[in-house]
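> example.struct
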């Protein structure tokens, strides 16, 4: 789930920078993505089968900042979320953390990212946290 608002510079940057990167797109392809505004009145059915306006679901989830990405496992349980604009390396890492199932083996997202960055460096790949 991607929650955004209008007039959100970080949301705009997520789309113009983050969602344009190949490593992010590769990870996004592993998800069903649904995008809503925090004020959205359209009815949604949550993973637990409840029907409600998207804005009410965001409130139920406790979404407090946008852009927010709430990631669920195959059973519909929330397993990870980001509530901030992440640079592409961290965005791709967050998606990979869930899509690979790493969150079940490594409870620390930061350790997961550190291990990923170390592996990339050992292969001679550049790790750029800012661009």
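> example.seq
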């Amino acid at each position: 789930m991607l929650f955004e608002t209008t007039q959100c510079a970080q949301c705009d940057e997520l789309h113009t920078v983050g969602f344009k990167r190949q490593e992010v797109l590769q990870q996004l392809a592993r998800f069903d993505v649904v995008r809503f505004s925090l004020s959205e009145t359209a009815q949604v059915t949550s993973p637990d089968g409840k029907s409600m306006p998207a804005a009410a679901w965001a409130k139920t989830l406790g979404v407090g900042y946008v852009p927010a990405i709430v990631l669920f496992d195959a059973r519909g349980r929330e397993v990870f979320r980001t509530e901030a604009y992440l640079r592409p390396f961290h965005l791709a890492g967050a998606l990979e953390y869930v899509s690979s199932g790493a969150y079940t083996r490594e409870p620390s997202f930061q350790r997961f990212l550190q291990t990923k960055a170390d592996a990339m460096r050992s292969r001679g790949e550049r790790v750029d946290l800012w661009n």
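> remarks
The CA atoms of residues 98 and 124 lie 25 Å apart.
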